[in-house]
Design a protein that fits this description.
Elements (H helix, E strand, L loop, with lengths): L3 H6 L6 E6 L5 E7 L2 H8 L8 H8 L3 E6 L3 H15 L6 E2 L7 E4 L8 E4 L8 E3 L5 H15 L19 H4 L13 H15 L4 H16 L3 H20 L1 E2 L7 E9 L2 E10 L2 E11 L6 H13 L8 E3 L7 H12 L4 E3 L4 H31 L1 H11 L10 E9 L2 E11 L2 E2 L5 E4 L8 H24 L14 E4 L3 H14 L5 E6 L5 E6 L2 E4 L5 H24 L2 H8 L7 H11 L2 H6 L2 H5 L6 H17 L1
Parallel strand pairs: 9-12, 12-13, 14-18, 18-19
Antiparallel strand pairs: 1-2, 1-3, 4-11, 5-6, 5-7, 8-11, 9-10, 10-11, 14-15, 15-16, 15-17, 19-20, 20-21
């Protein structure tokens, strides 16, 4: 037995990382501390002010463990690794896991290539980026290959020089064929160096060169080539115009700002490379309620830079971080050179931070409206349903189950159970039932069987779980509301089953009008009208449609040829020969059911008596319905 108060006394006054565990061994929180004794004790002091999220976390702690480190920097690195590995539920977590495209120039090769890359590695290559658009990266690479005739093949040069023949790119004048020795290594590298200058933002030379070639081709009456140079010229101008000068310092930096509200935050990152803004990206975070900006930015930086392949020389932030020095040491170790974390107060750098913050606020507001609409459509609608029925949801999952029966003329009867939580379908909990005890089109009897089996299984699983045989079963979780596709009859069947089993769950009927459209709810012996234009009505309709769809799909999956054969075998006078003839002529059992006696009698091998037997077999079922 872990005695938290006793274990708190044993904590060392050393830097390190602590891990909070729940009763089922789950790691629910990871944190670092410069003094483990002081930091961990704060969680369990009643006098300490805690956010609601931390209060919930502390109430779920069964035990904790810790790892002592030699320095706060080592604790920071370990904390980042553990959070990334375990993704604890109470840590502020990134919701995104993105990679960004780079342009890779393999300068370590004798004849370098220009390639698309999703990662930056220590492989003697030069990387440019990151970029936010893979399309723009591909366009730029294609443009550079056209202008500078850089190869794209995978041949190992110079080892493979002279082997084979030059490829298509040589013939369309987009490669100088170094694979054939048609260009020296020195001349080829001059082209690559110019491509690298272009990637560094030096466009003037390229623009001048393309203009000269365009005019020269035009003077020589080679208008097709002049048009090609004109198109390349326009492409370069477009790329040049997209690059915004943000600083006269040719430095790589990330500009980071945030916006937050309640449990949500958005962090905006501007990527500035060689003094130019080359892209931007935003990230969503789930946070503690009203988390501070320092908490949001500190958590983001630790997680983001532990996974990104590139660390800039400077990081600009809107506020100062208490642990900025130790984070700077950590990032410098990753980069193998000094990384500065700055909070600019004036000038261009401050304006960049303000711009990033403005963009973060825009994204948050946009997503907030979307989240609000989604909540009105889902949890807002189901909450309204529970309020109208006077049902209290203890867990606030608002779990409801709906059931439906499907058959063909009383044959191959099946039942479906669908589950909604917080107004959304929970498809992993859906269940299918083959009707075993009911023969013919008895929807009430079939529904009684489905409900009895569903809740009997649930009670048995609960009993086994209490005895320690299993942890969870397919039917263990009971709904807070059962919704029946029908009125008083279906509701009464459900209430009778629940009473027989000793289960107390509210049951509501979804009543339809003469046009088979939902018109109201049947609950506690009366029909309740509903607003047919509101979100609650739309939710009820979705639940009805989903239960019906799931039952129909299951029924269709059973209506293969083997099942049709078994049904026809039950009809007097229909043997293997007539059965095959019927199936060949009508294809599906629905076609056979819909056929008249005269149509059935015209099938090869059939006669009037056999046709009447088939017709009466199916239509007797329909009359019973």
């Amino acid at each position: 037995m872990f005695d938290i108060q006793e274990e708190l006394k044993k904590l060392p006054a050393s830097p390190g990382v602590y891990l909070m565990h729940s009763a089922n061994e789950e790691i629910i929180y990871v944190g670092k501390a410069i003094n483990l004794r002081n930091r961990v004790r704060q969680y369990f002091r009643e006098s300490t002010n805690k956010t609601s999220k931390i209060e919930r976390m502390v109430s779920n702690i069964a035990y904790f463990e810790y790892i002592v480190t030699d320095s706060e920097l080592e604790a920071l690195i370990l904390e980042c690794n553990l959070i990334k590995k375990h993704r604890p539920r109470y840590n502020t977590m990134l919701k995104d896991d993105k990679t960004y495209p780079y342009i890779k120039v393999t300068v370590g090769e004798a004849f370098p290539r220009i390639l698309f890359s999703r990662s930056m590695n220590k492989d003697h290559s030069r990387y440019f980026g990151p970029y936010t658009s893979a399309g723009s990266v591909n366009d730029t690479i294609e443009l550079l290959r056209k202008i500078y005739n850089v190869r794209s093949c995978r041949k190992k040069l110079p080892e493979d020089i002279g082997k084979g023949r030059p490829c298509l790119n040589y013939h369309i004048k987009q490669c100088k064929a170094p694979c054939m020795g048609y260009i020296s290594s020195e001349d080829y590298k001059k082209n690559v160096d110019e491509a690298v200058e272009f990637l560094n933002g030096k466009y003037d030379k390229v623009l001048k060169m393309l203009e000269e070639k365009m005019y020269k081709a035009s003077e020589n009456m080679d208008f097709e080539k002049a048009a090609d140079y004109r198109d390349l010229l326009n492409s370069v101008r477009n790329i040049a115009q997209k690059q915004k000068i943000t600083s006269d310092e040719f430095m790589d930096r990330d500009v980071i700002a945030y916006a937050s509200e309640d449990f949500d935050a958005v962090v905006q990152v501007f990527f500035v490379r060689e003094g130019k803004l080359v892209g931007r990206e935003h990230f969503h975070l789930s946070t503690a309620y009203m988390a501070t900006g320092e908490q949001i930015l500190s958590s983001f930086i630790k997680q983001y830079y532990s996974g990104t392949p590139f660390v800039p020389k400077e990081i600009l932030l809107p506020i100062e971080l208490e642990d900025s020095e130790v984070i700077s040491q950590w990032l410098s170790r990753i980069k193998n050179s000094k990384v500065r974390i700055l909070t600019p107060k004036k000038g261009e750098k401050e304006k960049m931070v303000e711009l990033a913050a403005k963009n973060a606020k825009i994204v948050l507001d946009q997503d907030k409206d979307k989240i609000k609409r989604d909540e009105e459509r889902t949890i807002g609608a189901v909450r309204q349903l529970f309020e109208i029925l006077g049902i209290y949801s203890k867990s606030e999952t608002y779990r409801l189950e709906a059931f439906d029966i499907s058959n063909t003329a009383g044959l191959l009867s099946v039942g479906s159970m669908i589950v909604y939580e917080k107004g959304k379908p929970k498809r992993n909990d859906y269940r299918k039932f083959k009707i075993k005890t009911i023969i013919g089109p008895d929807d009430y009897g079939s529904m009684r069987e489905v409900l009895t089996r569903r809740f009997t299984h649930g009670l048995e699983e609960m009993k086994e779980a209490n005895e320690g045989d299993i942890n969870y079963g397919k039917f263990t979780r009971f709904p807070e509301l059962i919704m029946m596709d029908g009125g008083m009859g279906q509701v009464n069947i459900a209430l009778e089953v629940l009473e027989e089993l000793g289960v107390n769950i509210p049951v509501c009927g979804m009543v339809k009008d003469d046009h088979h459209r939902t018109r109201g709810l049947y609950f506690n012996g009366e029909e309740l009208p509903i607003d047919t234009h509101g979100e609650m009505f739309k939710l009820i309709t979705r639940v009805q449609d989903e239960a019906h769809r799931f039952a129909i799909e299951f029924h269709r999956s059973l209506r293969g040829k083997n099942q049709v054969k078994s049904i026809l075998d039950d009809i007097p006078g229909i043997g293997p020969t007539r059965r095959r003839a019927l199936m060949k002529n009508f294809k599906t059992i629905e076609d056979i059911i819909g056929a008249q006696i005269e149509e059935l009698a015209r099938v090869d091998g059939m006669n009037v008596v056999a046709a009447e037997n088939v017709y009466e077999f199916f239509h007797n079922h329909k009359e019973k319905q």
